[in-house]
Amino acid sequence: MSEEAGQDEYEHHGGFPKYVPADVGPEFGRLVEALRTLQDLAVSTAPSPEVTLDLAERVEAINDVLKTFQVPEGQPPAGRVMTLPGRGSLLMLPWTVEKFDAEGVRSRGVFRRFHLGGNGAAHGGTLPLLFDDMFGMIQHAYGRPISRTAYLHINYRKITPLDTELVIEGSVDRVEGRKTFISAVLKDTEGNVLADCDALMVQLLKGQP
Ligand SMILES: CCCCCCCCCCCC(=O)SCCNC(=O)CCNC(=O)[C@H](O)C(C)(C)COP(=O)(O)OP(=O)(O)OC[C@H]1O[C@@H](n2cnc3c(N)ncnc32)[C@H](O)[C@@H]1OP(=O)(O)O
């Protein structure tokens, strides 16, 4: 799809902002990593009431600074820095894209303490998040217009460990009119399948949110 055609598609799909890669310095990646460590620590520590109060006041002071820089959707760098884990978004898993083209997308990373479900394994709800974001990237890399996930079917095959390098890879299986069928597989570095997933993404009609 040409750049011009891509812009045309964006213009015809409701209020979706146009997402373009963000140009940021190393300080942004440093801030995101510090915040991810904060998330890990927030769910894995039990500080005393005095320390908790002190921390609450310090985080509130940080929030007061950040509040003055709020901008509309599509404008923060979060989610738009392809070179950063999770594209620099705290919501996304801290995974790094290493292949991104029409043939498919591959990404590598770890589930961290923040993503703990139970008994040392990743929370089951974090896997669909990883797959759904992958599917968005896959259909975008394939050149499909803005679409939304209609269904996402996941099979949990093995326990997904924390703090262990894993790989996810997927591609477009077929396109039928507005419908894009996509699948992806999550594996460990020895090739064991931890989960697989397939989804339908439906191209939005003019004016659809
Ligand atoms: C670098 C970064 C890039 C990033 C690039 C940015 C990418 C942004 C990605 C955003 C992803 C999301 O937001 S996902 C968010 C979670 N998803 C949602 O919120 C979607 C909520 N659902 C909807 O909005 C709607 O149901 C739609 C748009 C999915 C479909 O509604 P519709 O437009 O009225 O279409 P409809 O006629 O119902 O269906 C069209 C065709 O699809 C089929 N179909 C529809 N739903 C299903 C279903 N669940 N299971 C089977 N088939 C289905 C129908 O049978 C029909 O087939 P046929 O009769 O034609 O054969």
Largest sheet: 6 strands, antiparallel
List the bound ligands: dodecyl-COA
> Structural class given helices, strands, pairing?
alpha+beta
Low-confidence stretches: 1-8
What oligomeric state best describes the polypeptide chains here? Answer: single chain
Please report the first level of CATH classification, the CATH class: Alpha Beta
Would you report the number of β strands?
Answer: 6
Sheet-strand content, in percent, reads 25-35%
CATH architecture: Roll
Summary?
Pfam families: 4HBT (PF03061). The chain has helices spanning 3-11, 26-42, 49-67, 126-142, and strands at 95-101, 104-109, 147-156, 166-176, 179-188, 193-203.
How would you describe the overall organization of this protein?
The chain is of the alpha+beta class. The chain has one domain: Hotdog Thioesterase (Thiol Ester Dehydrase, Chain A), CATH 3.10.129. Helices cover 30% and strands 26% of the residues. The chain has 4 helices and 6 strands. Strands 1-2-4-5-6-3 form a 6-stranded antiparallel β-sheet, with helices on one face. The longest helix has 19 residues, at 49-67. It is globular, with a radius of gyration of 19 Å. Dodecyl-COA is lined by residues 19, 136-137, 140, 146, 148-151, 177-179, 200, 202, 204-205, 208. Residues 119-194 form the Thioesterase domain. Its EC number is 3.1.2.2. It comes from Rhodococcus sovatensis. It catalyses: dodecanoyl-CoA + H2O = dodecanoate + CoA + H(+); decanoyl-CoA + H2O = decanoate + CoA + H(+); octanoyl-CoA + H2O = octanoate + CoA + H(+); (5Z,8Z,11Z,14Z)-eicosatetraenoyl-CoA + H2O = (5Z,8Z,11Z,14Z)-eicosatetraenoate + CoA + H(+). GO terms for molecular function: hydrolase activity.
